[in-house]
Fold:
Amino acid sequence: MKLTRYTIQALAFFIASLAVTSCHKEEAIDISVPQISAGQGITSDTLSGSIKGTLLSGKTYYFRTNITINAGDTLLMQAGSKLIALGDGTTTETSPQITNNGTFVSLGTQDNQNFITVPDDKRIAANIGKGFWGGIQCGETSGDLIIKWTHIEFVGGPAGPDADPAIYAAGDPRMTIVFTNTNANCILEDSWIYGSTDDGMRVLSGKISIMRNTYEACGKAGGESLNLKSGTVGDVAYNVSIGAATNSFKASNSGGNAIQTNVNVYNNTMLNGGLRQVKSGRGGSINYEKGAQGTIYNNVIVNCRFGLRITKDADTAHMQYNNQFYYGNADYFIPQFNAADGIARTQSGDIAGTAAKTNNPMFATYDVDMFDYSTITPPVDIAGMPVSIITAVNYNFSLLPGSPALKHGYTNFAPLKSVPQGGLYGATTELPGVDMGAYQSDGSGNQHYASSLSFK
Structure:
């Protein structure tokens, strides 16, 4: 089945009506929300070829060869389901991918998360960038991609004949998620993308809401956490990007789509980015170029090789930016808080020190000075990086009382909300926050406090 707007609305209303709670002085009766299915439940634990239906809660499924969701079909993962790729990343044939020409939905929850990953013995930090499988590759006429509270890990196997030739040359490392339909919705919420060989996620066109996710160690020698191309419209907010090879968030109008790239990037937290990119002037945090437009506010940028970069060929007439927070513990970060080869400059609401180790953001449990960046000169191969600067076992990027980033957010703008909102299949797009960064002092924003690998 294809999840149309009317199906989404009907299902959301049905679920809401079942979730009513009746309270009395001496009793409270909670009516549990049933698991949602999209077609027949899949009972075989091994998947191959064309698939549709529902991956059931509590079940683990495996795929060794490519699997495809055909046009008009839906594959839905119930909360608490796992999909394990049995690949080794050495060849195209041994690096299976999920090809989505229909609609793919993963409805994990905070208490019952989903996994699209590799066997447990391969889920280790030493395997960052090894690329054991081929990711989720969405065709240009696919339906929606809706992923919530899901761990997607260790993607980057070499591309072959089943990969889109408009995106990959033979042998290229595949990206964790690729989405390419201008007319469809791409919703990624509260999820983790971990250890990819190239981009954690690339949207070549589509309506997006990218909210409250964590991107860890994306890109081995190059690649962004999130790479947005021509025809992409929507919001990117309350995400954490730690240890990206190049940028955390890149927006470009390259690609020739008739719809201009227009993306709001606000209230994100970026750490330790851009240190692996070998190309001069590339990489670090937020990059707008080649005709892209958008709004950029309230982002926290810590120990990134370059800060905000807006090139002169971006649509600067239709861009607004201010209220970024910068911190660097080495002198070479300071002059690049606004990338020197771009046109972005310090704004009235920015918080940016003029010397190393000034304006510590005061994260609750993450020490921004655990690694002394003055001891290295980028680029640095991933093998030479301490794991602590590309990922973290446990962390809390909430701001402690007294942080200079508290209450310095700018809120006088609205999200684009380009995708359906609310319910199981819609987005929960949050408004700009009064605090800078992805974690708000009122408890809203990002809800992650541990690395993807900390969960089983």
